[in-house]
Write a structure and sequence with these properties.
It contains 11 helices and 22 strands. By secondary structure, the chain is of the alpha+beta class. β21 and β22 (420-421) form a beta hairpin. The two termini are 19 Å apart.
Length: 486
């Protein structure tokens, strides 16, 4: 890749300011036009305009290398320069058939699924469904021009001049999307679903709590089994939100298995533990630069208010003799491994060790993309402040605390030779299979008609939120013909 050594000229469409050095990475680029060095005339088609000033956006700087090549710098997490992974930006003012190479040059991680075929996702104005770039167009390598840091380069060909193109590390799932989804659930007035505001983030965003159960079926004398699930404590791990939505969609559906689960179990779900970090386009931290998943032991009501509120609720429920808090599952995404898998805790009691392995073993039977062989049980010192470790020590020996991880990229099924890239829909399907597994765990199969649960179908359990699930073959064929130009 040829690099011109002239002074980079980067102009802002609105303010005409020049790009600064590394200290310019405190904010996102805002309608930034990148034109050739020394160019001062009227902007032309093909002088790309970059923007990341939108919800969950992240792009801190763009350097012009040549007419065909641009270096892109990820903006670090707010108040924490250590983490630079998530990116999400738009490009416009393109020229038809314009070919470019984008180099993302300042990743904070060296190990990455980009080594194994992962690629960024793209959509455009006229093709709003996210697609992965072809793996053959993506390169991940140590670069001598950037202090031998790892660089991810991808080649792309713009094919429609009037389109705005958007690129991201993985399928975005924003705070606003969650709010629209939860509002649509509320409008359905389901008798077994309750939504409440458990608290507010530092920037006053909602911390939502969903309770899903059939309260009519719960007798006052019987102890109630409770499953608690959280997601997006790490804001850049967007697949966790799709899994969480899959769990919710299934549990509120008319599926006979979901009805039985609601009769016997209380599900408490906090879908977004770090709404500020998600909104800001951070990868790992909150607004104030905290990795919230290291602060469960003593969360501050002013610095970690969402964590503080959830911990208070869990402690309170754990002290309620009428409730048996049996599961805590925190959903994450993993940047170096394939498949879904779990982390659990280490116990001295061998029987408890065996019981803890039951749920992931059952999930492995229900979900072809879940790997029990990747599931591990540990007590690393560095993980002491995580939800799994802290609550594993707090709750009694009938409770099991897990981290559910899913690959940012793909999964391998039994007998397959090539990884299958995840889509928004297959992430949600894993969530539905997680929910379904509680039927097996609690041995409730005999409550299902004819002892044969109806197989989980995509279209049957998704709520009407415009996600295009359960479409017919003709729709899928149409999508293939409308793929975004690479």
């Amino acid at each position: 890749m040829e690099r011109k050594m002239e002074e980079n000229t980067v102009s802002d469409v609105d303010a005409g300011r020049e790009a600064g050095g590394e200290d310019a990475l405190v904010g996102n680029v805002n309608k930034l036009m990148v034109s050739p060095p020394g160019y001062s005339g009227i902007p032309r088609k093909g002088h790309l305009v970059f923007d990341a000033c939108f919800e969950s956006g992240n792009l801190g700087r763009v350097d012009y290398i040549s007419e065909f090549e641009f270096d892109l710098f990820i903006r670090p997490d707010t108040c924490n320069p250590r983490f630079r992974v998530w990116f999400n930006f738009t490009v416009e003012n393109v020229r038809e058939t314009q070919r470019v190479i984008f180099n993302v040059v300042n990743f904070s991680k060296t190990k990455s699924l980009y080594r194994d075929g992962m690629s960024p996702v793209v959509k455009s104005t006229s093709r709003p469904k996210w697609q992965r770039l072809p793996a053959k167009n993506v390169y991940y390598y140590r670069c001598p021009d950037h202090r031998r840091n790892y660089v991810m380069s991808f080649a792309f060909c713009f094919d429609r001049e009037d389109d705005v193109y958007q690129f991201a590390y993985c399928y975005p799932y924003t705070y606003s999307r969650l709010q629209h989804y939860l509002a649509s659930l509320e409008r359905r007035n389901l008798p077994y679903l309750q939504r409440e505001q458990l608290g507010l983030s530092v920037q006053q965003r909602r911390l939502d709590l969903l309770t899903i159960t059939n309260s009519d079926h719960m007798s006052a004398e019987r102890e109630k089994k409770l499953v608690f699930l959280t997601a997006r404590v790490h804001p850049g791990e967007s697949p966790a939100s799709f899994i969480c939505q899959g769990v919710i969609d299934f549990l509120v559906s008319h599926h006979p298995v979901a009805q039985i689960l609601r009769d016997h179990v209380i599900f408490k779900i906090v879908p977004m533990l770090n709404p500020d970090g998600v909104y800001l386009g951070n990868y790992r931290c909150s607004l104030m630069g905290f990795d919230l998943n290291r602060h469960w032991q003593d969360p501050s009501p002013w610095a970690h208010p969402t964590l503080h509120a959830v911990k208070q609720l869990i402690v309170q429920m754990n002290q309620d003799p009428r409730v048996s808090l049996e599961f805590y599952i925190d959903v994450h995404a993993h940047s170096t491994m394939l498949n879904g898998f779990m982390y659990g805790n280490v116990f001295e009691d061998e029987e408890r060790v065996q019981r803890q392995a039951v749920f992931p073993r059952l999930l492995c039977q229900n979900a072809p993309d879940f790997s029990f062989s990747n599931t591990s049980f540990n007590r690393d010192v560095v993980k002491a402040g995580t939800g799994r470790r802290f609550l594993g020590g707090l709750l009694d020996d009938t409770s099991y605390c897990y981290t559910l991880e899913v690959s940012f990229y793909s999964y391998m099924t039994a007998g397959s030779t090539a990884p299958v890239p995840y889509t928004e829909e297959t992430y949600m399907k894993l969530g539905r299979n997680v929910a379904r597994t509680f039927l097996d765990y609690y041995k409730l199969n005999n409550f299902v008609k004819d002892n044969r649960p109806t197989p989980i179908q995509s279209s049957g359990v998704m709520s009407q939120t415009g996600n295009g699930v359960g479409r017919d073959t003709a729709d899928r064929e149409k999508e293939k013909s409308e793929s975004v130009g690479h």
